[in-house]
């Protein structure tokens, strides 16, 4: 007789506690008034219970904070009233050299770059002496960037952003040609280019709570409630699942006979996370 069958025979109600393949998390049920915080486990996970479903959930604390920070960064980086990206000034302006090919692409669209992507560029090199005196490189200065940029600038960063902007401008132009009206929501999604989204993902990740950081019950409560207000509350900024259903908790006095089972389930989950981290660490040291 398998261990699972022995458990079923010893605990008849065990079947009702197990997570089924059909179990799925409902976004509408994940509300602040329907969540009860249990606490932090192993300085890595936050356990809570969905009251109406009696469902025990385990959240990755780093991924939870990352999702919250990511959506806040998006909100803070966009001027929703005027439908444009917020900008910040660079003083003194950042100077860099670009190829003649890239220069020819942006020469006549600097206004569009500023209007759509908050990128202000000034051409420093004169056309007539460009190729002869500058080895085929054009000197430009950048005095304004989107507010979501960090204060760490380098040439490759702006090269990638310029190429991203050029692709998005072409997409915007195609959309305007194929539609007769402007959709503000669609315009916002086009101005938040893939490059900018990735920048915000990295910022959200680096500034988030890490594993082995201890949290109080109040900290856990604030994080989970903030997560419940997010648009994509079950995935981190990179798209990975941040929550795992553990089991259904029996009601009232029925929970006492199953307390050991619940504790064993939590312990096994802790060990599973420990082994994954240990495996990654061993792999990293082996590569070195």
Question: Describe it for me?
Answer:
With 288 residues, this protein is an alpha+beta fold. It has two domains: 14-72 and 210-248, MutL, C-terminal domain, dimerisation subdomain (formyl-coa transferase, domain 3, 2-Layer Sandwich); 86-190, MutL, C-terminal domain, regulatory subdomain (Ribosomal Protein S8, Chain: A, domain 1, 2-Layer Sandwich), CATH 3.30.1370.100. 47% of the residues lie in helices and 19% in strands. It has eleven helices and nine strands. A four-stranded antiparallel sheet has the order 1-2-3-9, sandwiched between helices. Strands 6-8-7 form a three-stranded antiparallel sheet. A hairpin with a 4-residue loop joins β4 (78-79) and β5 (84-85). It is elongated. The two termini are 46 Å apart. 22% of the residues are buried.
Strand and helix map with partners:
Elements: H1 3-10, H2 14-17, E1 35-41, E2 45-50, E3 55-60, H3 61-77, E4 78-79, E5 84-85, E6 87-99, H4 100-106, H5 110-117, E7 120-123, H6 130-133, E8 137-146, H7 155-178, H8 184-191, H9 194-206, H10 217-228, E9 243-248, H11 259-287
Antiparallel strand pairs: 1-2, 2-3, 3-9, 4-5, 6-8, 7-8
Helix pairs in contact: 3-9, 3-10
CATH superfamily of the largest domain: MutL, C-terminal domain, regulatory subdomain
- Report strand order across the widest sheet: 1-2-3-9
Radius of gyration: 26 Å
Mean pLDDT: 81
Estimate the strand proportion: 15-25%
The secondary-structure class comes to: alpha+beta
Number of helical runs?
A: 11
Please give the number of β-strands: 9
Number of domains: 2
- Low-confidence blocks of residues: 128-133, 281-288
Organism: Sarcoptes scabiei (Itch mite)
Protein name: DNA mismatch repair protein Mlh3
InterPro entries: MutL/Mlh/Pms-like, MutL_C, MutL_C_dimsub, MutL_C_sf
Pfam family, one: MutL_C
